[in-house]
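question for whoever is on the cluster today: can someone run the full assembly for these? two chains, 963 residues total. i dont have access anymore since they changed the login thing
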Amino acid sequence: MAKEYNFREIEQKWHRLWTQRHTYKVTEDVNRKKFYVLNMFPYPSGAGLHVGHPLGYIASDIYARYKRLQGFNVLNPMGYDAYGLPAEQYAIKTGQHPEKTTFANIDRYREQLDKIGFSFDWDREVRTCTPDYYHWTQWAFQKMFNSYFNEELQKAQPIERLIEKFKQEGRWPSDEKAQSDLLMNYRLAFLGETMVNWCPGLGTVLANDEVVEGVSVRGGYPVEQKKMRQWCLRVSAYSQRLLDGLDTIDWSESIKETQRNWIGRSEGTEVKIKIVDELTSKQVDKLVDEGANGNSSTNKQLVNSSTEFTIFTTRADTMFGVTFFVLAPESELVDKVTTPEQRAAVDEYLHYVKSRTERERMIDHTVTGVFSGAYGINPITGDKCPIYIAEYVLAGYGTGAIMAVPAHDSRDYAFARHFGLPIIPLVEGADVSEESYDAKEGIVINSPSAPEKSVEYDGERLCLNGLTIKEAIAETKRFVKAHGLGRVKVNYRLRDAIFSRQRYWGEPFPVYYKQGIPTMIPEECLPIELPQVEKFLPTETGEPPLGNAKVWAWDEKNRRVVDCSLVDNKTVFPIELYTMPGFAGSSAYYLRYMDPHNDKALVSDRAASYWQNVDLYVGGSEHATGHLIYSRFWNKFLFDLGVSKKDEPFQKLVNQGMIQGRSNFVYRIKETNTFVSLGLKDQYDVTPIHVDVNIVKNDVLDIEAFKAWSPEYATAEFVLEDGKYICGWAIEKMSKSMYNVVNPDMIVEKFGADTLRLYEMFLGPVEQSKPWDTNGIDGCHRFLKKLWALFWTKDGELAATDGEPSADSLKTLHKLIKKVTADIEAFSYNTSISAFMVAVNELTQQRCTSRQVLQTLPVLIAPFAPHIAEELWEALGQEGSVCDARWPQWEEKYLVETSVKLGVQFNGKVRFDMFFPADATPEQMIELATSAPEAAKYLEGMQVVKTIAIPGRIVNIVLKPQA
RNA sequence: GCCCAGAUGGUGGAAUUGGUAGACACGAGGGACUUAAAAUCCCUUGGCCAGUGAUGGCCGUACGGGUUCGAUUCCCGUUCCGGGCACCA
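^ ran it for u. tokens below:
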């Protein structure tokens, strides 16, 4: 009896042995080179894992195991992003404490993960919701609070330095409240009165990346803009460093591009615009006559006339085409600028703008706006242009005010057309009769249209005519700077991150309010643990859920958390009721894995120095503008502090694709309980119904299982084709409601973890999204059986012999080593597995039993299928674990061909194949090809024009008819 | 609208980056073994045409052009699908 491949027994055995032997325990070892592999840790949801989740873990595990076999000391940890909304919402619904459900989910995840045979060092597991972990989240927050960003040094510095500076400059107020307010403008973690994305459905604010098209990512509730006092992180301070860092890391171009868009650097010019209004310009002469001592209302006008505002533009070259200015409705200037005559119209407009939700504004781009009554003076032309207020200008970007150049900006163009404002073309050949010319290419004209149309400054007038747009921008910048009309300014779209949430299930802020001044709980007293509450909903007075906590006040004298009733505002103060957002805990977890049990520091200097940063990070691309920005920001801050040793946290990033579901359908004839097979369905009026993919094999329905699936179908009847019921299919998101969820446990049960690992990788490139189709899995399972069979005789004895391997076998082996090594390096696991299949087939055909060849195979397959690798390794009588073996080196000498079969081409078309000596020179190849008998018929009556011969590639002879 | 990435058999996908397109796997068809099933093994499988046959010919990598002895690969244009950003001045 041949020895059977009993994967269940093998996998259970090795899972047990790995645990017993601590095979995957990692310690810092300065004598070995480190390699840090990391997966984005999962949020443990109640639904458990489906086959899509482990894809990235398998891909990184393969790389981790490969690196280990190469002799690296590999850190490959795993943990849980355990704070989050679903657990809290579940708690609200059921009253179950989120910790309870979260921990239960974690246990379930762990159980599922363990079945797949990962090389995680579980001793390093972290959970973001445990006090020993969020201790360091709170600590980092306090460090940010006590730091500011030094623009000159482009790095974070202790806030004390800033205080010193203020003192030296005499700007340090004596009042404590004023001191606090002043510093809030600089702290990296600060309380800010900002417009936030308020989500009434969730009862909390959301970060920009948590809102898509005006609704929340989680739950899809509408989101509105609201002004609130919130904790914020000054992420924008790091804009330039976040941008520059992208050039130093090995990430996909598309994700870097996404981040560049998100950071949105634009280099432009700020120009100061003087304001005049109708009244002032009419009355200026009169006022001068009267001696400027008019009544208070005219005084106010005079103040207005000396007021100026600043606009931001990236198209400084178009200053000669400005025909109006526009302010954002939320701009503080609106109030100052509006004239009494226009007051009513402006108020009405502001009211209209307020009534519109963010979503409406985003979708509906109809032109709206109102004239403020005031005018601005274009400093370059001296022209007086009306100032409008319109919602198409955003308060949050630039200065909230723009100069409008309708000829060369489509939005300004639409506005000008709507309000009948002039349009002045500035680019040679640009036709602006139908639409604006927005391109940044061409030669500038009309700038100025006549010499006197350009205002003189210090004897100089700006003239851009004849320049290219790029030159004109540079020239205008120079002019504006030289004459003090404004300054060159870089703007970023990246906003500061709103860092507080009105939720229960998150990290509490280590902050209390002393006479309204936010004060940090001393570092030595951290962590401040999340208090118990009875209800997870906001309080009746609208406070966040932590308002329900009874013991949630800070006793300054005794340095501990005490009962709220003790608050006396002398020594006992209320603690912050907000909690931190989801990204707080996930921003520095990779550092914690380096030293997870340290209770003195986030990470020891020794561990951080050894592990440096993550060499390979694997996770979904959906985190491009969330986690992957926050984490880089957080790390850069910790780098400035000297805690992190690298400016960038993740050197190489691989984004695994999503696994979609492949749903199956049955077709019910309307108003019957009869189902018709796919090929016949067009003959009836049918309703397609999702059917559980687990009772369908190769699109053939298991009719008995279907009848048992739901009582409704117990009496179903079927119209079959060829005696089978064929189901339809479609690619959809993998979800319970589509009955297309495939569970990894089931696959492991049926085929084994090694087959699952192999198949997940065989499905296609790791980066690519693809549907899961269990149909193909047999191929991978068969391969493992064939590999297994190679090691055993018919009688179930070990087949290995000590004889010298054949040249063929050595060639097969070394070809395989070469291919697999190159493919793993390139993350091309699917082709790697194909190479294995070819090699095993070849070795089987060669009846290879050589120990020398056989003992290399377990090492090569170990990254992909570790269980079978261990079993074979042991069967061969090798010492220890295959994990401690050395990755083999391929040798060219076994691959050398004595002859090479190449296509011989005449005029670019392959005419015949022939063998050439492997070491033939191009000249010899041409000689051999032209003298071959097959060549004669092509050469007849022809003349050789050109010959091309590339050893190993091609032989090509170009002919033309003889003259 | 702007930016990025794609499009190859019935299906998932290969192709040493300009050198015999379709590796490997699934599915399908045929065959062997078997009382039968499972399992295993062998053959065929991009399309069209000719031939009893070994075989030969033509077409073929979304579409239309171009460069080249030679293009799935490089260039230009078009269509379609996916991802990101989006009144960002």
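summary bc i know u wont read the tokens: Residues 807-825 of chain A form the longest helix (19 residues). Chain A is about 35% helix and 20% strand.
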